[in-house]
């Protein structure tokens, strides 16, 4: 095994650990984002019940965007750990 192959093998081992940390952070971020989104929807609905439909639409759209962050983190995790 050449020196270059050893360095690449060692880097691959380190990338798996860093990838797991990165995925964990993206999942935590998405969880916090989803919590903030739905708390704002509930708060807005409590203040103005007639705006519930519009708030729910905005809530679902932003929920999808927040979950997309976790999905991107999962994809990057599998790419980096391969």
TrEMBL record:
Membrane topology listed for this record: Multi-pass membrane protein
Keyword Zinc: no
Keywords of this entry: ATP synthesis, Cell membrane, CF(0), Hydrogen ion transport, Ion transport, Lipid-binding, Membrane, Transmembrane, Transmembrane helix, Transport
Main localization, broad class: membrane
Sites marked Reversibly protonated during proton transport: 67
HAMAP family reported in the protein's UniProt record: ATP_synth_c_bact (MF_01396)
Name of this protein: ATP synthase subunit c
Lineage start: Bacteria, Bacillati, Actinomycetota, Actinomycetes, Pseudonocardiales
Gene of this entry: atpE
């Amino acid at each position: 095994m050449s020196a270059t192959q050893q360095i690449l093998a060692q880097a691959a081992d380190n990338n798996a650990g860093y990838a797991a940390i990165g995925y964990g952070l993206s999942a935590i971020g998405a969880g916090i984002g989803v919590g903030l989104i739905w708390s704002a929807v509930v708060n807005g609905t409590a203040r103005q019940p007639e705006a519930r439909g519009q708030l729910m639409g905005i809530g679902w759209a932003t929920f999808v965007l927040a979950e997309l962050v976790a999905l991107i983190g999962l994809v990057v995790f599998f790419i980096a750990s391969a």
